[in-house]
Each structure stands twice: as C-alpha cells, then as structure tokens.
Amino acid sequence: MGDPGGQRLIWFALGSKQLHLIIRDEPESVSSRHIATSVDDFDSFIAHLENTGVRLEEPHAGQFWSRRADGSRFAFCYDPDGNRIELMEKPGS
Length: 93
Prior knowledge:
Oligomer: single chain
Number of strands: 6
Largest sheet: 4 strands, mixed
Distance between the termini: 34 Å
CATH topology of one domain: 2,3-Dihydroxybiphenyl 1,2-Dioxygenase, domain 1
Mean pLDDT: 83
CATH class of one domain: Alpha Beta
Strand content: 25-35%
Shape: globular
CATH superfamily of one domain: 2,3-Dihydroxybiphenyl 1,2-Dioxygenase, domain 1
Strand order of the largest sheet: 3-6-5-4
Number of helices: 1
C-alpha cells in the first residue's frame, strides 16, 4: 500500500488484515510493542528457537512461556534487530 500520507509509514495488506510499519531514523528504546503470530506446534517451535540460540524471554526460571487465563500458552522472542515477537499457541493445539 506504500506510504499513503507521506508520514514515513509502510502498510502491508495481509489477507483481510493490515500491518503498519513506521520508518524511524534511529531505533526506539525498549518497548512492550510487538507483533504476534500463532504457532502450529508450540512446543517444537519454542524448542527449535532455544536450540538455535534465538533470544527468548524467560518469565519463569527455565521456562520460556506463560499461560493466559484461558489456559493457552504464549512466549516472546526477539529478532536479530531486537524487535519483540509474541508466539501464541493455536487454540486446540
């Protein structure tokens, strides 16, 4: 979709959803902002990230995931540029 208002934004259409990115001259400081995606095989995916050295948050000693009130699990990892990514267990997995 480009930068519709000349505001240094890039918009992507992802099916019926959109992803909006802001272009900055300098990286921002640590923030809770993040993107999220669901993962088919949560346990295997988290183990793969851990085994390949991807930085994962450790909310509990030795555990890289937490549970929501509904019982579903989620985890946070970081890409090489330090962007935070939430990984969500698919419902029914």
